[in-house]
Amino acid sequence: MDRKRELVDILNKWAHEYYVLDKPTVSDKEYDTLYDELKKLEEASGEVYPDSPTRRVGGEPIKGFEKHTHIARLFSLDKSVTKEELRAFLTRVQKAAEREVEYTVEYKFDGLTVCLTYEKGEFVRATTRGNGVVGEDVTAQVLTIKSFPLRISYQGTLEVRGEAVIRLSVLDEYNKTADEPLKNARNAAAGAIRNLDPKITRQRRPDIYFYDVNYTSDSLPMSQTEAHTFLKNEGFKVYPYFAVCKTEDEVLAAIKTVETERKQIDVLTDGAVIKVNDWALREEMGFTDKFPRWAMAYKFEAEEVTTLLNEVIWQVGRTGKLTPLALLQPVELGGATVSRATLNNYGDILRKDVKIGSRVLVRRSNEVIPEILGATEHYEHSKEIEKPVRCPACGSSLQETGAHLFCPNRLCVPRIVAALDHYAGKNAMNIDGFSESTALQLVEKQGVVKVSDLYNLTAEDLAKLEGFKAKKINNLLSEIEKSKTPKLDAFIYAIGIDGVGRVAAKDLASRFGSMETLQNATVEELLALENVGEITANAIVQYFQDEDNLSTLRALVEAGVSPVWSDEKKEGVFSGHSVVLTGTLSSLKRSEAQKLIEEKGGVCQSSVTAKTTLVVAGEEAGSKLAKAQKLGIPVLDEPAFLEMLEK
Question: HSE-up of 622 (CA within 13 Å, CB side)?
């Protein structure tokens, strides 16, 4: 066996353990060392095995999606929303079978259906479902996902079906640093797979759960149970819950289990899928024009409610983009009072036929924020929402770029306030005691227009602000002074380059090491980074070509702001540990606990993953604690955590 083949096999085994089994056996460093060796060997020889892990790196953007005809049609499922409809389905199956019937019950994930094709054991293509007969080729995008094999032992022609999803924890993590947060996991998954730029797909970190064998050139398998086992044995990621039921009561009990447990799992689900297990019986029952007669999707009651739309206001962000915010008649939804919901842009308003004074349908089903699905009823007094032509804050004529409206005025007050607030934030320059209201007062009363103006403030200036006494003035001036030596990644994030979140900022700092080097980076150099796509790369280059931005950066340097960067790892009691905090700590704020962990060598994570080595659980710890216990990850309560900090 040549060294390249050996490395491919080893790396694929490790990737399967990490991404599919959730049981890593080696460190990231060990994996990266062999990966780099493989890459060098491939570059030297010019040969890449079809199942090489280096194929999974996102390639260049494509111009459009090519159409592809599925070997076998991908039918959608008939749906039931009541127990009566479900019982009627089970009765129809029983009558058609005239014998004892076995059913399977699985989770119904809410994402995007994809179909993967294999020939002679090699992965050759990935497509969307499309209309069931013809889908779109998304091979380049799906290749960035690591939860499926590039090579399998089955040597015939094979089509397997799965649901592309984005984990809720991944969505939450992405939205913390994204300039434009993704609204919900379902749309995020579809948008990731159907993005023309595979690097964007990789940044959003979709996953695939496989659940069906759509076509084989041989006669296997003979049941859904066999199909589930076949997929698992071939290395495809399958969800562990899989119930086999022989009676109506067992089916209903399995559905109840799915409905109860779905809020504790990290994937958006909207129901359960019930199928006849025996494929021979499936052949007998056949299909309608749209659906198989042997399967049914049972949809759970969505967390939706109707209410009146009272008003739409337009908010101006730090980039000048206007976002419509719907003000609703307060209504209870999902255990919370909802009084507002976002609408993406004016096109979204038109598509959903939303009007002032109309009744609208609002959903909150594992989404990050409430979503208006559309209007349910218009009244005589309902009126159209006008598309703004001028900025609601400064009156400037708006510019339209793509689907969004922008205020071009850099001196627009909300833009300045948002930029100052972002710059001073905890994840940026960490100026404690600085708030949005402080920023607004500084703009209105002291004429602050750039972040560099903060370093010219005096005690006399701050004394003119409402609520500022001697102690608060001294504290804020001290914090501003302290911010002059930020970490480079925090500074890059703070200056607000469009599309650069915390993760990308850290990558940029690690790769370029200084602002001077970053300022001269080319688009090609930027695209080599994992968390930088084409749009962001161009935004970075354009940022450093803008004279206003360069003027601000020069003013910051003159004020004494000097970012520092060091890749050196801190040593301490948490060295080598990836730690997740969950619940409420009585003695520390979460941000304080995270800082202490990092100061003592640890890395803080937002969710429990296979990389997590410790979980700190405070009061009212929830699903993260449950997942940690399930995975056998050590858990520290607050006293044990505090004791560890003292070591």
Answer: 8
What token pair was written down for 45?
């020889």
Predicted confidence (pLDDT) per residue in 505-523, tens digit = 988 998 898 999 999 999 9
Segment 446-479, tens digit of pLDDT: 999 999 999 999 999 999 999 999 999 999 999 9
Host domain of residue 360: 304-405
SS3 68: strand
What is the pTM assigned to this prediction? 0.53
For residue 61, the model assigns a pLDDT of 56
147 and 98 assigned to the same domain: yes
DSSP secondary structure, 276-304, as one string: ESBHHHHHHH-B-SSSBTTEEEEEPPP-E
Last residue of a domain, one of 266, 299, 332: 299
How many structural domains does the chain have?
Answer: 5
**Are both 524 and 589 inside the same structural domain?**
no
Q: List residues with catalytic annotation.
A: 108
Q: What's the rounded Cα separation, in Å, for the pair 387 and 374? A: 18
Q: Residue 127's beta-bridge partner residues?
A: 115, 137
Q: In whole angstroms, what is the distance from residue 499 CA to residue 177 CA?
A: 9
Question: 150 and 271: one domain?
Answer: yes
| Type of residue at 46 | G
The pLDDT value recorded for residue 365 is: 53
